[in-house]
Amino acid sequence: MNNTAWIEDFASEIGNSGVPHGWSLHVDKNLQKKNDATYCSQRTFGSFRCLSCKRSWSSSKVFILFCMKQNHFQRRGSVAMRIFKQGCQKCTKMQEPMIHSENIERVISNVVSHIQKAFYGKENANDDRPPHTYGSLDGPHDEEHCEACQLNLCDRQMTSQETSSSLGLLSALVGVGAGALALMYLSKN
């Protein structure tokens, strides 16, 4: 993975954004979510080639986590970035994705927009730009081979967990509502 492209694109985009503080980006291959920062995540399209068995695949669900911290006293901000790997379905070795420069630019643009909204209250910042896909994609997200899923960080997992807990709450409320209606009916009769 070419970290230089990410760092240079970030420096250019943040410089053009008009934010009043200096911001920097660095790669942290061990980044995990903690409670002391602001986070955003992105999914993008990436290509993989297993270095062990030479199998190739593409994914539109390459998960990237960004941790943003601002130091008001130093008038600086920093962004830590982790691009999660995917495991080969043939030999299970974890591989880093190759991400096209166009998608690097789109992801960085989305992160800078998030910084503008979260730290500077700029509501007119750009909406998230979706990734460009190259080639065809086969099948659903392979949670078993997704490093972010294994660490319970993947957006897809959070969405399905939130959906199932929301459905549980909804069915509980419906049950309570039906019970309340039955009690109300019985008390009138």
UniProtKB/TrEMBL annotation:
It is a single-pass membrane protein. Pfam families: Zn_ribbon_3CxxC (PF13695). The keyword Zinc-finger applies. It is found in: Membrane. Its main location: membrane. The chain crosses the membrane at residues 167-186. Residues 43-152 form the 3CxxC-type domain. Keywords: Membrane, Metal-binding, Transmembrane, Transmembrane helix, Zinc, Zinc-finger. It comes from the Eukaryota. PANTHER family: RECEPTOR TRANSPORTING PROTEIN, RECEPTOR-TRANSPORTING PROTEIN 4. This is 3CxxC-type domain-containing protein. It comes from Ranitomeya imitator (mimic poison frog).
